Amino acid sequence: MPDTLDQLKKQWQELNLRTTRLEEANNELSQRLARGHVTSTQQRLARDTRRWGIAGFLLVLLAIPLVHTFSMPWWVGVVYAAFGILMAILNFNLSAFIERERLVDLPVTQAYERACRIRHRQFLCRVTGIICGSLVIAMLFYYFWLQNDIIIIYSFAGGLIIGLSLGISKAYRQNRMSRQLIDDFKD
Fold this sequence. Notes:
By secondary structure, the chain is mainly alpha-helical.
């Protein structure tokens, strides 16, 4: 009987040790998965922002045919190209800022604070784009309105609708990613 009791005690201790090791391994695995999820979200947000920076440079290329096709004054093309360059710089700058922040290497409170900072810079970039874009759109619409060509005005309105839908979907997607980044550190 004492021998059986010692064996049971030994088996219980071994089971306890294995359970402790399993819990530690599970904790380590869940932390690695959480870090991977945060890193993945951060990388996707930076990559998506970089893509919109490339789109900003494409506006520069579109400025040349815009001026020549519609016989617009050169300053309209310059303003359009300047808007594209501004948006490209803002988006590339934001993308670099997002990539520089090593959120997974920081304590949770600092990582949360930096994730909030990323979201704030994203908001400032968006507001700047909306304000400057609205001015460019108003300028182009006024110019097309003075031309009194209904086909150009309808084409402009169609382009505006397509551009707005793309911009809104981009803003929604990036907003969701930055919110997810913050929520990962909230708990």
